Amino acid sequence: MNLELDIARRIARAPLGGSRSVMERIAVASVALSVAVMLLSIAIITGFKREISRRISDFSSHVVVTDPRSLGSLDAEPLRIDRALDSLAACDPAFRRAARYALRGGIVRTAEAVEGVLLKGVDAAYDLAPFEGWLVEGALPRIGDTIRAKEVLLPRELARRLALAAGDRFELLYAEADARLRRDRFKVAGIYASGMDELDRTTLLTDLRNVQRLAGWAPDEVSGCEIRLDRLEAAPAFAEGLDRRLFYDESERFDRLAAMCVQALYPNIFDWLKAHDVNAAVILTIMLVVAFFNLSAALLTVVLERIRMIGLLRALGMTRRSLRRIFRYRAAIIALRGLAWGNAAGLALCLVQRHFGLVRLDAEGYLLSVVPIALEAGWWLLLNAGFAAAIFLLMLLPASAVASVKPDETMRYE
Length: 414
Fold this sequence. Notes:
alpha+beta, two-stranded antiparallel ribbon, 16 helices, 12 strands, about 20% strand
C-alpha cells in the first residue's frame, strides 16, 4: 500500500456537503486552460503548415523542370522535353509521375468584365485529383481525349468577377508573335476553388493541345514538366539530384533545363511557415509558466490548509521525504484533473472547427479561407506527456515547502 498516495487522495476529496477550495479550482481551471490553448495552438499551426504545403504542391506539383529564364513569363520560348526526362527522374525512388504543361497569357472578355488570365494546358498524365476535390460547380474539362475539347476549368473568384457559370462560353484574346491580337472561344466545363485565392485567382486549366495551338507550337513543344513525388519532404533532395543529372547529361537536349522544388519556387511562403514554429514555442512556454504559477499557488494554499495535519504526521514519525511525496501526489492529482478538462475542451473545439469551419480567415493575408486543424495521436500524446513531466519537475520546489514545517509549532497552529 502506498501510504503517501492514499493520504493525497483522501485530502483531494471534497468535504462532505462542501466544495473544494477556491485556489484548487483556480489551479485546475488554469491547467485546463493552458492545455486547451496549447492543444489548439499545435493543431492549428500544424494544420496550417500542412494544408498550405499540400495545396501549393497540389497546385504546382513537387518539382518543376523548365528553363529558369522562363519563370514568371507568360510568353516564354517553348522547350522540347521527351520521355528521356522520365528515365532520369525515375532513378529516384520518390518519383511517382511526370506531366508536361504549357503556359500562355491572355485576356478574357465578357459582357460584365475584362480580366487577364493564365491559360495552363496539361496532358493526360497530369494529376487532376486535387482539382476534383476543389470542384464547386460543373465537371473537370476533358483532357487527353482523342478529340480535342475546348473546355477550361475556371477559378471561382475569376468566375464571379466575369459573371460566368459552368456551361457558359467566353472569348479569349491573345497576342500572336507579330503582336497582333487574335481571339478564340472556350466553354467553362467547371469552376474550382482551392482555398488559396492568391495562387488560383487567374489560372485556367485546359488541354495541353489548346495552349500549343494558341501559341503556334509543335506537339512536342511545352513550357516544362511537373513531377509529383510520394511526399513533399523529398522534393528538395529530389530536385537537387535531378538537376545534377540534367547538368552532367552528355546530350544537348537538357541544356536549358533545370529542376526546382516547390520550396524554391515559393520561398517566401515556406519561410513564413517555418516562422510559425517560433510562435508555437512562445505560446507553449507562456501557457506552461501560467499553469506552473497557478499550480504552485494552489499547492502552497493546500500546505497552509493542512498545516496541522503536517505537524501531526511529523510528530507521528513521518519523514520530510514522505511529506513532500504526499504533496507532490496532491499536485499531480490537480494537474491530472486540469489535463482531463483541458483535453476535453481542446479536442471538442478542434473537432467542431474541423467539421464545421466556424472560424474563417482572410485569404489575402493567410492564403486559406478557413482555419485548418490537424489532429494526430503522436503529438497529442507527446504534448500531454511533456506537460505532465514539466509540471512534475517544476512542482519539486513548492512541494519542498513542507520540509520547513516544525511539529512543535504546527500542533498549536490555528
